[in-house]
Design goal:
Elements lengths: L1 E6 L14 E2 L2 E2 L2 H10 L4 E5 L3 H9 L19 H14 L6 E5 L8 H13 L5 E6 L8 E4 L2 E4 L16 E11 H5 L10 E4 L11 H16 L4
Parallel strand pairs: 1-4, 1-5, 6-10
Antiparallel strand pairs: 2-3, 5-9, 6-9, 7-8
Helix pairs in contact: 1-4
């Protein structure tokens, strides 16, 4: 059984009730639910939440909420893997036994169902390895610097005179989805390893929404997507 699990707690420090805040006309969690449904992959789309409010909204857009997450697993110190393992255990109690799980973040408003499908295809080939979305850093990491005590310090000073185009490219997690087998999730394997696989997405669609600035940037990208008839 192939399951999507969307972990969505009600608490959020920087953006109040971020997981259900309106984004382009809908609660933001609606967008990943819609994308998951559009992929036509999942037997069930499950939302793991500690909130009745989130549960009601999630059900409205087509997800299932067969259990409520415990409070001890709903603070900002609990990792995603622990939440997924808890979801697996709760589903097992209901005689639902997933083989493959795609964790989709509730604020992945710009997620594309085609990327979910591509990730699934990679997952089928590498069943017990993580598959996730990533994108290239907007600026060269090798020319980065710190700014502490009002002092600029290059982290890699030997690259000061090098042209940007001559520096190696680096990538970061796009914060959208994570495929793996239920078996691997239960072992709490690290997402990043030599065997992990990546689905690359463009930078303008890879916005991990944590701050108000991130939210504004994502809205601008959503306007671009509207021109492409997604929204």
């Amino acid at each position: 059984m192939i399951i999507a699990v969307i972990p969505a707690r009600i608490g959020s420090k920087r953006i109040k009730k971020k997981n259900i805040k309106k984004f382009y006309g809908k609660p933001i969690i609606a967008w990943p639910i819609i994308a998951a449904k559009k992929s036509n992959i999942f037997d069930k789309i499950i939302v793991s939440t500690d909130s009745f409010q989130i549960a009601l909204i999630s059900k409205k857009y087509g997800a299932e909420v067969p259990f409520l997450r415990k409070k001890k697993l709903s603070n900002n110190k609990v990792g995603t893997s622990e939440v997924i393992v808890d979801a697996i255990e709760n589903l097992n109690k209901l005689n639902i036994n997933p083989t493959s799980i795609c964790c989709i973040y509730p604020t992945a408003a710009l997620i594309d169902s085609r990327d979910i499908v591509n990730g699934f295809k990679v997952h089928l080939k590498y069943k017990n390895q993580f598959v996730f979305t990533a994108t290239e850093f907007a600026s060269p990491v090798l020319r980065s610097f710190s700014y502490e005590s009002k002092k600029v310090r290059m982290l890699f000073p030997k690259n000061y005179k090098k042209r940007s185009q001559d520096l190696k490219n680096y990538y970061h997690d796009a914060g959208q989805f994570y495929w793996n087998s239920a078996k691997a999730w239960k072992k709490l394997k690290p997402v990043y390893s030599d065997n992990s696989k990546v689905v690359f997405v463009p930078r303008w669609r890879a916005i991990d929404i944590n701050t108000k600035d991130d939210w504004k940037t994502a809205l601008q990208s959503a306007k671009i997507l509207k021109l492409g008839k997604k929204y």
